[in-house]
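User: Just a sanity check before I run the rest of the batch. Below are the structure tokens for the first item. I only need the designed sequence back.
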């Protein structure tokens, strides 16, 4: 493999890993809110009745999009793994599967950012500050792939 192809492969692999990490962080953030000890986000942000209504309306489409995209990411991830470990390795298929996965992960990030922008429009300055602090304090866990190789 020449230096240019190797460099491109490393860049794509790094972007893929970052995208996977972002998806894992987002999934972990959602699970964190399901714990009984964690107050509802609406309560934490002290949303008023009008804000709660707007928040829930904004969330409906977001959750449907998020779930659909997560399902597509899962399927494409499996397709990538299958192409990597196929009996006959076809690198062009591996790279196509990798690019398709990266595209889905980029769409996932776009969905999340658009939701955060919609939420931002609903919140007061103080509530935005609370949400920003909450989001930046969320832990970033190592990927399952990374955990497998560390154990």
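Assistant: Here's the designed sequence for the first item:
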């Amino acid at each position: 493999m020449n230096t240019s192809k190797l460099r491109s492969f490393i860049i794509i692999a790094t972007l893929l890993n970052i995208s996977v990490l972002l998806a894992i962080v987002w999934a972990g953030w959602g699970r964190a809110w399901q714990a009984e000890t964690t107050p509802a986000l609406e309560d934490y942000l002290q949303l008023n009745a009008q804000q709660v209504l707007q928040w829930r309306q904004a969330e409906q489409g977001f959750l449907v999009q998020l779930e659909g995209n997560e399902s597509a990411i899962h399927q494409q991830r499996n397709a990538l793994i299958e192409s990597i470990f196929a009996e006959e390795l076809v690198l062009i298929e591996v790279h196509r599967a990798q690019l398709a996965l990266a595209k889905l992960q980029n769409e996932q990030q776009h969905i999340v950012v658009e939701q955060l922008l919609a939420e931002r429009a609903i919140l007061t300055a103080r509530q935005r500050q609370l949400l920003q602090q909450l989001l930046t304090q969320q832990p970033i866990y190592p990927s399952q792939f990374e955990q497998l190789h560390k154990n």
